[in-house]
Amino acid sequence: MKRCTWVEGQPEIYLNYHDNEWGVPVYDDHKLYEMLFLECFQAGLSWLTVLKKRENFRSAFDQFDPTKIQHYNETKVEELLQDPGIIRSRSKINAAINNAAKFIEIQQEHGSFSKYLWGFSDGTVIVNKDDQFTTTTDLSDALSKDLKKRGMKYVGSVTIYAYLQGGGVVNDHELGCFRHPDK
C-alpha cells in the first residue's frame, strides 16, 4: 500500500493517524475541538510527540470536553503542570482553557463549530492536485485571523493549516497515496 512519503518509516501510531484520520472530513464538534486542542499543543513540537501523549491528554483534560475545560482554575493548572503524561507548558494549558471558552462562543454564534469551520471553504474539501505543498494558504490565514480576533491563542496560520489538513477541510495526501481522493 502506497502512503504519503512523509509517513514512511514512522511508528505505527503515526501510520494509523495517516491512514485513518489525516485528511478525513470531520463534522463532529467534539472531534473538531479535540483536534484543535492537540494542534495548539503541537506548536513548536513534533506531531508524533502529541500523538504519543494523546490518550494522556484525553484523561487529563476531561475527555476533551470544552464545557469542563473552560472552567479550569489555577489549582487545576498546577495539577496539569505536574502531569508527566502531557506537554507541561503553562502557556499552552492556559490557552487550552481560553480556547475552550472561545470554541463554545463560536458554537453558540453559529449553531456549531463545524458550521463555522466549514463555512470558510463553502463546505467543500480542498484537494491537493499537484503534490506542491505549503504550510499556509489564504484559507489558513483567514481562519487564523478570525480565531485570533475572537481571542483564541496558539492559532497561527501554520497551526491552523495543519488543523485544516487533520480535519479534512484540506486533503493534502500525495497523488500516489492510497488516501488521495483520486485513488
UniProtKB/TrEMBL annotation:
Key words of the record:
Metal-binding, Zinc
* Binding residues for Zn(2+): 4, 18, 173, 177
- A biological process from GO: base-excision repair
Q: Which Gene3D superfamilies match?
A: Hypothetical protein, domain 2 (1.10.340.30)
- This protein is called 3-methyladenine DNA glycosylase
- Does the UniProt entry include the keyword Zinc? yes
Q: Which InterPro entries match?
A: Adenine_glyco (IPR005019), DNA-3mA_glycosylase (IPR052891), DNA_glycosylase (IPR011257)
User: What Pfam family does this protein match (any one)?
Assistant: Adenine_glyco
Signal peptide coordinates? none
What molecular function terms (GO) are annotated for this protein? DNA-3-methyladenine glycosylase activity; metal ion binding
